[in-house]
Write a structure and sequence with these properties.
This protein is an alpha/beta fold and 354 residues long. The protein has helices at residues 27-38, 66-70, 123-136, 160-173, 187-193, 207-216, 231-243, 271-278, 287-291, 294-306, 333-349, and strands spanning 15-21, 43-48, 53-58, 75-80, 99-101, 104-106, 112-116, 140-142, 177-180, 196-199, 221-224, 249-253, 283-285, 311-315. The protein contains 11 helices and 14 strands. The termini are far apart. The model is unreliable at 1-11 (pLDDT under 50). The structure holds phosphoenolpyruvate and manganese (II) ion. Phosphoenolpyruvate binds at residues 118, 144, 148, 180, 200-202, 224, 254, 289.
């Protein structure tokens, strides 16, 4: 069964054991310890964190005596990594990853707010919402151009024209743009135009798409949790992107399917501390798709910030009653501005910059 989880890191093989160096370790210590491992016929993969360096061991680790390595004064500890995910694993990268989206930092002590309509409907609509979102303090603009709709008869999005509208809104406001990529066919266009490429809940396990975005770009990827994905399945999807060459992954919890039908989904806020325990990746919360009702967005966004999320994704529409998609869960600009004000003292209380 384990073979199921075998995967390649830069085609080098699986990392089964890691050496966590002391924060005081110098480059020559890392070199010396790496050589000790290599002399046993193994290969190493070195990850330099801001505070700590971790050496991954690749090959037959039965030849390695952890205690012998731990004797070295520059070594903090030697650990087996039993989880099937390595690159996303916090053990392999003790520091929080901070992902830069066109100058906006997500992760660490930064709270980033993504706001905008479910779908791009017209230039006027997006520019108006973008300006209001920016004035209220949003850091990024969202908008779907290619929409994954449950019904083939529902509005499918404006496509490329929608992406151009987002680009125009970025020019008008300076806000970096976030949009969902549904098919690798549009990958080049997204790499050219979009700052944060979203992989939607329904595509979380589209492994071909994950491999393609990981291989083709180092642009940040926003990976939404599948409707009924476990934490491990979700992290393994991030691992697909990372193992294909793109380490810049941000996770987004957007509610999961439960027996409850009053709300669209059930927002799993436990995902925040769990993801932070298991991985070093930033996690943001989308309370709009979770609850499906606009009045649930304010309290759940606040709860998410208290629970330690690195950002929020909130649907904002200037005319929700007429929205072509997800109007009932969208905040009007004034309600969004009110939420941003109310989040300030909460963010401060949990040491986050908003
Ligand atoms: C979206 O954010 O536009 C969206 C479709 O969300 P999800 O993939 O979480 O359903
Ligand atoms: Mn939506």
């Amino acid at each position: 069964m384990r073979v199921f989880y075998l995967y390649q890191i830069e085609n080098k093989g699986e990392i089964k054991m890691i050496i966590v160096m002391k924060t005081t370790a110098k480059a020559e210590d890392v070199k010396k310890v790496s050589k000790m491992v290599e002399d046993k016929g193994l290969r190493v993969s070195v990850v330099n964190g801001t505070g700590q360096t971790v050496i991954g061991m690749i090959g037959d680790t039965t030849k390695v005596d952890p205690e012998q390595i731990e004797v070295d004064p520059a070594v903090e500890k030697v650990m087996h990594v039993s989880e099937p995910y390595k690159l996303a694993n916090r053990a392999f990268h003790p520091d929080d990853s901070i992902i830069d989206v066109r100058g906006v930092k997500i992760g660490g002590g930064n709270l980033a707010v993504i706001a905008g309509p479910c779908s791009v409907e017209s230039k006027e609509q997006v520019i108006e919402i973008a300006k209001a979102a920016k004035a209220a303090g949003a850091n990024l603009l969202r908008g779907g151009a290619f929409k994954p709709r449950t019904s083939p008869y529902a509005f499918q999005g404006m496509g490329s024209e929608g992406l151009d509208i987002l680009v125009a809104a970025r020019e008008a406001t300076g806000l970096p743009i976030v949009s969902e990529l549904m098919d690798a066919e549009h990958l080049d266009e997204f790499i050219e135009k979009v700052d944060l490429i979203q992989i939607g809940a329904r595509n979380m396990q589209n492994f071909d798409l994950l491999k393609k975005v990981g291989k083709a770009t180092k642009k940040p990827i926003l990976l939404k949790r599948g409707l009924s994905a476990t934490y491990q399945e979700w992290i393994m999807s991030a691992e697909y992107i990372m193992a294909s060459g793109n380490p810049n992954v941000i996770l987004c919890e957007r509610g999961v399917r439960t027996f409850e039908s009053y709300t669209r989904n059930t927002l799993d806020l436990q995902a925040i501390p769990v993801i932070k325990e298991l991985t070093h990746l930033p996690i943001i919360i989308d309370p709009s798709h979770a609850g499906g009702k606009w009045w649930l967005v304010n309290p759940m966004a606040k709860a998410a910030v208290v629970a330690g999320c690195d950002g929020l994704m909130i649907e904002v529409h200037n005319n929700p009653e007429k929205a072509l998609c997800d109007g009932p869960q969208s905040l009007k600009p004034a309600k969004f501005a009110q939420l941003m004000e109310e989040l300030k003292p909460i963010a401060k209380a949990v040491n986050k910059e908003i």
